[in-house]
Amino acid sequence: MQEFLEVQTLGKIRPSYIKNIANDLAEKFSTIFTIDFDKNKKLVEKYTNVESKKVRNRIAGYLVSIIRRSQFEYVSPEEEEFPEDYEEYEITRAAAGEEEVEEEKAAEEEEELEKAEEEEVEEEKAAEEEEEPKKAKKAKKQKKAK
């Protein structure tokens, strides 16, 4: 079975007029264009006065790449916007985490105590069972001695 690896290729060289037209269309009609090339072809034909099929297809193809990039656009941690009360959120979250850890420890200790109690009860039962035959033997010996 062949494994397919995602290979990152170099970008295609496109004329600036195709990029300019596609960028303008993407800005104006960002909600209309999708990653479907055929739909984009029809929309480019509708919203522009391009007569050449080759140029129309190039614009539609570049629109697909623009839309894909915008869907998976990376936001660096420095650019990421945090809510104003972010520090308070972190503090309360950390406090809640500590409480959960304490609760888990308490639950584990309770379980250990319960297990220890069960073991003690079992040991007592086993000791009583061992003592009963000894008592019975003593009683038999006492009866025989009389």
Structure description:
With 146 residues, the protein is mostly helical. It has two domains: 16-71, Orthogonal Bundle (Diphtheria Toxin Repressor, domain 2), CATH 1.10.60; 81-140. Helices cover 71% and strands 0% of the residues. The protein has four helices and no strands. The protein has helices at residues 16-28, 37-47, 53-71, 86-145. Helix 1 packs across helix 3 (53-71) and helix 2 (37-47) packs across helix 3 (53-71). The longest helix has 60 residues, at 86-145. The protein is rod-shaped. 8% of the residues are buried. The model has no long low-confidence stretch (mean pLDDT 78).
Name the features:
146 residues, mainly alpha, 71% helix, single chain, 4 helices, Diphtheria Toxin Repressor, domain 2
